[in-house]
Amino acid sequence: MLRSCVFSLVRHLTTISSSTCRPSLCLLQATNTRSVWSTGQEPRRSTYLQDALTPDEIQTASSAVKGYMSASGVDDPRFVAVSLKEPKPNIDEPPKRQAEVLVLNPSTGIATEMLVQGDEVISSEDLPLGTQPMLTPADCDLAESISKSSEEVQRALKERYDITDMDKVVGDPWSVHLASEEDRLLVEGDGKPKRLVQTFLYQRMEGEGMECNHYAHPIDILPIVDLNSKSVVRIDGLDRLPAPKVPTDSVNYHRNLLHTNSYLETQWRPRMKDLSIVQKDGPSFNVSDNNLVDWQGWSIRVGFNYREGLVLQDIKYKGRPIMNRASLVEMAVPYGDPSAPFTRKCAFDVGDYGLGYCANSLELGCDCLGHIHYFDVCMADEFGNPSVKKKAICMHEEDTGVLFKHVEYRNGHNESRRSRELVISSIATVVNYEYLFYWRFKLDGSIEFEIKLSGELSTNLTSSGEDPNHPSHGVLVAPGVNAQTHQHMFCCRLDMSIDGEKNTVSEVDIVAEDSPYGNAFGPVETVLKKEQDAVRLYDANKARSWKISNAEGKLNSITGKPTAFKLVPFTSGAAGPTVLTHDTSSVSKKGAFAQAHLWVTPFDEKERYPAGEYTPQSLEQDGLPKWIKGNRNLEAENIVLWHSFGVTHVPRVEDFPIMNVEHTGFTLKPDGFFDGNPAIDIAPDVNKGSKLNTPGCCSS
What we know:
The chain is mainly β and 700 residues long. Among the domains are: 55-126, Nuclear Transport Factor 2, Chain: A, CATH 3.10.450; 137-260, Nuclear Transport Factor 2, Chain: A (Roll), CATH 3.10.450.40; 323-350 and 393-422 and 457-671, Beta-galactosidase, Chain A, domain 5. The chain has eight helices and 33 strands. The strands form five sheets. Strands 1, 2, 3, 18, 19, 20, 21, 22, 27, 28, 29, 30 and 33 form a 13-stranded antiparallel sheet that branches. The longest helix has 16 residues, at 55-70. Its cofactor is Cu cation; Mn(2+); Zn(2+). One of its GO terms (molecular function) is primary methylamine oxidase activity.
């Protein structure tokens, strides 16, 4: 599962003038034959402090930085990011809007953090020599270009495989995870630090363009490039002689190449009958200025940035606060193959590449069904210019079956209500892998975060000495093609505010009690008082959950206990382990957040990312393990939950050539937040569009 923003994503970012990059909030409705756009007047861009930077603000900030650096003799800074410096939540005197700018000096390789207010750079700090910010889409494009244009790489491909057409060669760019002393030596050198990318090579064999599933044709050599010197610094795998053969079977899913398949289906099955989602009266949600969404008592402010992608803020139910902010803040993706060079095959997708930069422009009637509201987003390109990504966020409603039902068996009376959810989603393509993110707001007052994983497996040839038909650290998914066992470990940052800013977290286990008849069991609640007490593992045998309670005196009128929500892990997909790499491995050290399912810290605006601000080529442990050393108080504090969860993926043959979605996720459920079922006021309704399949089979 590859980790760099696919180079073609650069082409989906359209540089535009500031007058055309305002977020347009467009409604689209899908019918069974066509898509209909209905657009209103573009909303005025207000000065709500947590709104993403406007195009004018991005342009002004980047111009200020260019002028500042030009005065120091740097005329061609490479922009990594221009984004809003978010203010603290619920402050009495809000500050002026500021931009955080991260730039690279190409001549020295030094990265600089800048803070810009208006058209003035108010602070500038160079990062320590060798600190590497994330790889942008332009960096990924450049890495592949350097690799494929290298005479040394071209010569190796010619000599080993008789490959001369470099247009048929693909170089998937990955950050370089420094797993060994040999890896660490790669970054050393005199003068300019190295900014490394490893490019896993494949060959396109079918089709004329990019349609071919090149993961069916892996090549065994691995060039490592330095973006600063724009050169190949090493090629791994050249010592393997004779060179193994590149697999040649056609294993394609692309609509233009299905007919070429060597052993899978070559023709379409009969088309299924139409199933349309039609809302003739339109949606039940409203979107006002500042991207504020209202739906069935819920209010949510929709945001986005280059690193986390989709961000939700100011989440409330009928005016009662629940969360200040919610987002996915990191991913660790280790591969479990100890053979070189796969010891360094790992990535931190959020910190290494940025989910915002990797976000898709979504397709009506395919990625999203029904009456759809899209949000466009603006980010900066490598030159600091504002760029728009169309339809990066999708919002729609979904029917999800029965919400509640009871039949009075004595007289047959039925009370039943359908369940509907508001779904706010975004999809990121990280080269070969798709991550589909869904925040679901429910009529029962719950919030679910679901991640679906799809795309293509990152494949390789079996290592030297392995049985080519029985790889020791993977699964043969096509003739000669190995897919390695790996994990996807996610971490969400949840800034809680249950009925107010002061909250307390407790762990709730369901345990058996001693009783005369042996039938007693129930919940046992333990308050997590300090940070180091709050590094916790999920336990399915105890139905473990974590309760977040108000600590400002807000009590439930029925129970007399503090109003609360609870975090229930793994409500989507199978429950999974923490990261499986050994404690001594560099993955476990850098990705320590994945060694526990829960961490809790008091809010600190500087504590944003659980593996630290800068993950590429990082060696020192940063983030959560460092922050909790102070063992700060957690009772009656503005607390932040860091929930880690994920998927352990042992590939299956059925995952190739493209993977049907895997699921994982969690739910925040009200637990004494309401005085009863919050959905009992939903009026009864019967769907008039439903029909009997066989007329006369049943009485109506």
